[in-house]
Design brief:
The chain is of the alpha+beta class. Helix content is 57%, strand content 22%. The chain is elongated and about 160 Å long. The N and C termini lie far apart (167 Å).
């Protein structure tokens, strides 16, 4: 056998080995077809197949993050909104993912879009905005039921964006502003009610102890004087008290002068 023949044989052997050797990664499974019939699912590692007779398909078992395009949806209360979401799924049965469905990625994407439109359309706008976890759970369950025969497990679905019409955004802003004003008025009224009760109790105490009112007036004047204001307003009660003290002093002086005479 000459050298040329040996080289040719060696090249043929290398070609056969190249067509026979398959490497299945840890996150993959190898579905082997022999003359069009599935003969088994290969685990990760170095695997051999028969060239030109066997064919291996290696679906990934990793979790796939699939964005669901924005869907124009009319809610139950006839409000048009755009909803975008994201779905997480993975292959749990490599045989079904290869045999039962032509393209499981496209299939899951399409069923996700129709499910989002169908489920969100069953809720009112307020429910869509406030009950998002409930809607996410319902969408996930429906998609998972449809994809289970394909060997697909949907692990999670999340609504990531809800776009409202401009007119509805303004209406919601006005509603939120009115709600805040209502709460502010209620809080203010509650504060006035509590303050009125405290003032009533203080008035009862002052009525029993008139001197307490004079002490309070003096305290207020002291606070005003600390501010270095150029004008000080004296309460009428204080003026009356000063007048009473003056009358008392004058009466005492008159009595003393009569005694001296």
């Amino acid at each position: 056998m000459d050298i040329i023949s040996m080289i040719i044989i060696g090249i043929v052997i290398l070609i056969i080995l190249g067509l026979s050797i398959r490497i299945v990664n840890q996150y993959e499974r190898g579905v082997v077809f022999r003359l069009g019939k599935v003969i088994g699912v290969k685990e990760p590692g170095l695997r051999l197949i028969i060239p030109l007779v066997d064919r291996m398909v290696k679906p990934s078992l990793q979790i796939v993050t699939m964005p669901i395009p924005s869907q124009k949806i009319i809610t139950q209360d006839n409000v048009s909104i755009d909803v975008a979401a994201v779905a997480y799924f993975k292959v749990v049965d490599a045989y079904k993912a290869v045999v039962e469905i032509e393209n499981y990625n496209r299939a899951v994407n399409q069923i996700s879009q129709t499910t989002v439109r169908s489920v969100v359309g069953q809720f009112t706008l307020d429910e869509v905005l406030s009950e998002t976890p409930k809607i996410n759970q319902k969408i996930q369950e429906i998609i998972d039921d449809h994809s289970e025969p394909w060997g697909i497990k949907v692990t999670n679905v999340e609504i990531k964006d809800i776009k409202l019409p401009d007119s509805m955004q303004r209406a919601i802003a006005l509603q939120a502003e009115a709600e805040r004003e209502k709460r502010a008025k209620i809080i203010s009224a509650e504060g006035e009610y509590l303050a009125a009760g405290k003032l009533g109790k203080a008035a009862d105490i002052i009525s029993e102890h008139p001197v307490a009112l004079q002490l309070r007036i003096m305290q207020v004047l002291s606070n005003i004087a600390a501010e270095k204001n150029s004008t000080i307003v004296f309460p009428a009660q204080l003026l009356n008290s000063i007048r009473d003290v003056k009358d008392f002093m004058e009466s005492e002086l008159g009595v003393m002068s009569k005694k001296e005479k």
